[in-house]
Amino acid sequence: MFQLIAGPCVIESEEMVLSIAEIMKQITDELHIPYTFKASFDKANRTSISSFRGPGIDEGLRILKKVKDTYSLPICTDIHEPWQAEKAAEVADILQIPAFLCRQTDLLVAAAKTGKCINIKKAQFLAPWDMKNCVEKVRQAGNDNVMLCERGTSFGYNTLVVDMTGLRVMKDFGVPVIFDATHSVQKPGGNGTSTGGNRQYVEYLAKAAVSVGADGLFMETHPTPDEAKSDGPNMVPLGEMKELLQKLIKVYNAVQ
Fold first, then answer.
1. Which structural domain, as residue segments, surrounds residue 148?
2. Residue pLDDT, tens place only, 172-226
3. Which of 68, 112, 121, 246 has its CA 20 to 30 A from that of 80?
4. Residue 63 belongs to domain with CATH number
5. The whole model's pTM is what?
């Protein structure tokens, strides 16, 4: 079965995060999907200086640890600076490298040295074959536990497109490849001071990724995406996640 990394874009509150984690655990346990809870303690690359970034590393990791301890879930969170790696690794099972930072050698090496699984998001401006260099930076730092994550490629202004053959290219590096179905439907900066998106296409891109052999899916979800403080236009409503995952399981079983 494909693995799933999912949760809200950013930690908005402890109560919200725990509620999403509880529901997602129930769904994935019922569907027998290996599940990792994801949320960011800081969104350092928001469009506007006034955009909500999150609670910060100390409070954010406290909340993520509560999720981990309460529901026995592995945790994924992203880091933006090398000094954050060791601290985040005290809680997180997967350290995620944001797409814009995937070539930052010091960040990759610091993450690698924690010994944790490293999920590197492919930059919107890089070709799939360019990601081999990112993998090698982690491996040369002594960590073979690395994944790559496709999240779309820049296609003109405020638009992304997904080349599904890129997933196969990256799988040839001998690493698991995750498909980020929600960030791939973003319209970066498309709302002027925030990012837009087309969440109605998440299902179709996710189905395509599963059909070409993606090892896992990354999806952001929220009880009320239109009220979310980050990435609302591209997030999957929490109430629709179970039905979506059931459809994706059918695709997965059909192509095996």
1. 3-255
2. 999 999 999 999 998 776 555 456 678 899 999 999 999 999 999 999 999 999 8
3. 68
4. 3.20.20.70
5. 0.94
Q: Which long-range contacts (CB under 8 A, 24 or more apart) does 163-167 make?
A: 163/128, 164/208, 164/209, 164/212, 165/128, 165/212, 166/122, 166/127, 166/128, 167/128, 167/209, 167/212, 167/213, 167/214
User: What are the distances in angstroms from CA 225 to CA 62, 107, 228?
Assistant: 24, 31, 5
Q: What pLDDT is recorded for position 233?
A: 82
- In this structure, are residues 96 and 36 in contact, taking their beta carbons and an 8 Å threshold? no
For the chain, give the DSSP string: --EEEEE-SB---HHHHHHHHHHHHHHHHHHT--EEEE-BS--TT-SSTTS---S-HHHHHHHHHHHHHHHT--EEEE--SHHHHHHHHTT-SEEEEPGGGTT-HHHHHHHHTTTSEEEEEPPTTS-GGGHHHHHHHHHHTT---EEEEE--EE-STT-EE--THHHHHHHTTTS-EEEETTGGGEETTTTSSS-EE-GGGHHHHHHHHHHTT-SEEEEEEESSGGG-SSSGGGPEEGGGHHHHHHHHHHHHHHH-
Split into its structural domains, the chain has a count of 1
- Determine the Cα angle at 150 with ends 193 and 67, to 5°: 75
